[in-house]
Amino acid sequence: MTEAVGFRLEVMGLEERLVTRAIGLEQIIAQKVLTLSKEQQQQVLDFIEFLQLKSLTVEFKHHDGTPMSALEAAGDLVGCVDSGPGDLSTNKEYLKRPLTE
């Protein structure tokens, strides 16, 4: 790449960043989404929801604000299934069998 081409690309990148700041990223995204097909717009929405879920963290706390363990958080669910063995570790031989590929 020649020096002039490199400089031109650098200036274009700067211009693009300035335009982005002036217009606002949200508006640019909205304008670009409108140019997509309905299927592509759905993919964009799915990706946004994926990003939101990815950054979502749930932390359970006691009333006094101290962290709660997973067992404590799910405590009301322990023993809620009526059928099946009372203790899932009753089949010790099954647990000892070698893993198959």
Order of helices and strands: HHHHH
Strand content: under 5%
**How far apart lie the N and C ends?**
52 Å
Number of helices in the DSSP assignment: 5
Question: What can you tell me about this protein's structure?
Answer:
This protein is mostly helical and 101 residues long. It is built from five helices and no strands. The longest helix has 21 residues, at 3-23.
Structure summary:
By secondary structure, the chain is mainly α. It has helices at residues 3-23, 25-34, 38-55, 70-73, 92-96. The protein starts with a helix and ends in a 5-residue tail after the last helix.
What is the strand and helix layout of this fold?
Blueprint: H1 3-23, H2 25-34, H3 38-55, H4 70-73, H5 92-96
List keywords for this structure.
single chain, 101 residues, mainly alpha, 5 helices, 0% strand, elongated
